[in-house]
Amino acid sequence: MPRTLITLSAALLIATAQAAQAQITPIPDARAQIPSTQLVPQPKRTEFPAGTLALTGLGIRTVGKAPELGWAARDLRAEWKARLGATLPDASVGKPAIVIGTLADADLAAKAKAAGLTTTATEGYALWVDASGAYIVGANAKGAYEGAQTLRQLLTPAGLRFARISDSPALKERVAMIYLDQYSKGVNDALIPMLSALKYNAVLVMSNYVQWDTAKAGGYANPGGASKAEARRVAALAREHGLEVIPLIETLGHVQWMYYGGANKDLYQDPDSQNPYAYDTLNPATYSRVLFPIFKEATEVFGARTIHIGHDEVRNRDRFPARPNGKAAGFEKLFVDDTVKIHDYLKTLGVNTMIWHDSAFSDSVIASLPARLPKDIQVAYWNYAPGNDYPIVGQIAKLGFPVLGASWDEAGNAEGVAKAVQKAGALGMIQTRWTGYFGNPSIWDGQAQQGVAYVRAAGAFWNPDAKPVTNAEALYRDLYAPVAYKATAGATVSLKPLATRSLTDDDEKGWIGKGPDIDLRNLKPGVQQIGAYRFDISGAVMLKGARGAVSDLPTKVRIEIGRRADAVAFLHTTGWPSAVARENIGQYEIEYADGTKLVQPLEYGRHIRAWTDLLPTSMIPAPGWAGQTADGLEVNIPVLEWKNPKPSVVIRSITLVSEGRNANPTLLGLTLIGGQ
């Protein structure tokens, strides 16, 4: 064979695959969940004297009979079980205790006064932990419950951190939006306790597609909706976690729900619509056949004191008005008459009305339409852009309406609107969520950034003057699926022999070839704690991709392991993002000593994402390293923990494979968890 062909063949072989025996170093804390020191929401006044209240002999005692006190004890016991795998018993005479009560108890009121921590604000509480025990004294029972949520965050494996806290919420209403669909139980059973831990005090429940008896009888009950029994169960669960339940049943617009299966065609606002969006407000059957019976069912099922009736984006789709009689009346009259009719009916049920602001308070109608609405209608002003100035909040309030702000998931949005609401003296805030009527599971996997926003918003709603919540992604993951505070032994794996790129790029031949200002030099080498995991950082196993800068790299790399493990943690990323969500960009091939193989696919956004992609759409990967490039670009590297279904069998090797797409897999750290 000619020398040139031999050289070319060798080069192709190198570009196709590499393999090496990894250096494996046992460590006692391969994975270690560490309690956060950040309190969310941030209390108004905090002091943290040195010291810890030991757990040995510690019990719990409630003073009073209010249900909230029992809920507080329940939540603390659940925290002990989840974090420590231990039982928090009833308090014993003569031993330190967690005491929970209110100012209604003279002895506790005197103790709080002596401690200099008394607060009389609604939902306020005093909390202190010292060598004598832990005390939570609420201004009322709900305040004591909120104080328990703070105490949970003081728990460490060694005991409760000493603290002195006096606290109360800045905003009266702190609402989080949730959904009811066929996946409700698996999601809401995790979300509701999380939301109460974050000190929300109400949930706005998207309820269009609940399988109401009225909808079943009318032939438009969607099978993807939750049953009435599930709606009732979720409402009870919310109330038992201190959350008022506000059903959201979209009306006037967004009413595709009432036309499911071809039903109610006679109620179309626009008879020519191919995808009907609004209803005919001048047809009495709209109310007698559909809306009023469903509102009555919802009031009973949810125990609702307020129902949100939507009324947003009314003219965004179909012609409105479309029918001749509607055109003669005009939009404002149709909107006002419909809103008043529903409002007055809900009043007969003892229920308040809430609407979105945009159709009734837009620039084109704000001078005339609001004056024709009842002033006890609660108006939710939504604005999903970050900022500091939202003057319409104050404008709506000056028109005489109770106002709530409404935010979404972009960083800075909830924080800015909450400050505007506080300044205007408005009712409170709603953290909206728009994950689709039947997309509940996406709050964990698919649109998880909207779950992360719950955490940031909770901090802003309780205390708008506090600094924004940091590390919200990790907090959301840990609150939704709590992990025990313990260390698990394992081993770090050095990738140095297999590294194809350095983390620094002084000569435009390292990292992604963009020079020293756009590299990972701030991810320092050596064994270090990254998130809940310990990794040995020594370089990047970057594989081939579609970009010219990485077109000559290997398509696969094999790492020889020769060890058992219960799980494997991969600190990994891609050099560039994928333009396609959930695109398969590669895989890990796990080969066992018995000759069997398993494959862990790498779907972009679900298992792995680019170092410059900060949007956490899935909680399958855990937050890992976060930092900046030399020129100030925010970057991050997530961690995928792969649970080994065959922990008793030795893992012979792990092979990382690239599909050669724009997003090219890049492994920065590998740690074995458990095993031997």
Give your account of this protein's structure.
The protein is α/β, with parallel strands linked by helices and 676 residues long. The protein folds into three domains: 18-26 and 487-673; 37-167, Chitobiase, domain 2 (2-Layer Sandwich), CATH 3.30.379; 173-480, Glycosidases (TIM Barrel, Alpha-Beta Barrel), CATH 3.20.20.80. Helix content is 25%, strand content 27%. It is built from 14 helices and 31 strands. An eight-stranded parallel barrel has the order 12-13-14-15-16-17-18-19, surrounded by seven helices. 50% of the residues are buried.
Distance N to C terminus? 48 Å
Fraction in helix? 25-40%
Helix/strand/pairing category: alpha/beta
Fourth CATH level, the homologous superfamily of the largest domain = Glycosidases
Mean pLDDT: 95
Please tell me what the overall shape is.
globular
In the sheet with the most strands, the strands line up as: 12-13-14-15-16-17-18-19
CATH architecture of the largest domain: Alpha-Beta Barrel
CATH class of the largest domain: Alpha Beta
Main beta sheet strand tally, sense and closure: 8 strands, parallel, barrel
Structural domains: how many: 3
* Poorly predicted parts: 1-15
Specify the oligomeric state.
single chain
What's the CATH topology name of the largest domain?
A: TIM Barrel
E-strand count: 31
Tally the helices. 14
Radius of gyration, CA atoms, in whole angstroms: 29 Å
InterPro entries: Beta_hexosaminidase_sua/sub (IPR025705), GH (IPR017853), Glyco_hydro_20_cat (IPR015883), Hex-like_dom2 (IPR029018), HEX_bac_N (IPR015882)
EC number: 3.2.1.52
Family: Belongs to the glycosyl hydrolase 20 family.
Domain Glycoside hydrolase family 20 catalytic: 226-386
